[in-house]
Amino acid sequence: MEEIRLAIIEDDPTINKSLCMAIDMQVQMHTCFSAFSVEEALERIDDGETPQIILLDIGLPGMTGLEAIPVLKEKLPEVDIIMLTTYDESEKIFQALCSGACSYLSKKVSLQTIIDAIFTVSRGGSFMSPSIARKIANHFVPKRSALDGKLSDRQMDIVKSMADGLSYQQIADKNYISINTVRTHIKNIYELLQINSKGQLLKLYNQS
Known about the structure:
Shape: elongated
Largest sheet: 5 strands, parallel
């Protein structure tokens, strides 16, 4: 198997050193360079260093890891980027993946897991630590409102229409019912949920 060329961009000296040691212990891997900032890494790339895979931290001094992804991909279009970070917020995960990263690992995983991820990526795959994979999976699960199961389908349709900003008349037209029927439905919904305002209703609707 061809040797896998890697670069590490990590500002924590201890983590940086541990990653270098773990990678260089692998017969099939070689660290082209390790850098403590994106700016330093870009200088190394300009000097002719061409890694196949980059381990990239998000919380870096200067240019952040998220900002760096498109810059690195522009310089090295074929490079695979593995995010290695303490951040597991859904927004950052999806921003990284949408910007061009192929994998996202928590720093809580073992060094062996990181090595496994590198091999997986080198074979054309993608790798996510379990907690990250769960967040991604949950993103695609339809959100359930706190009102689900408490209201009828017609009542839920009316509540959704209210949440979308429709007036009583627009709701009536949409459902082919009279505006008085809409008012009756809303009155019944308030009584059923023991609330007395649209604000309370929408707050319940948006809870998931």
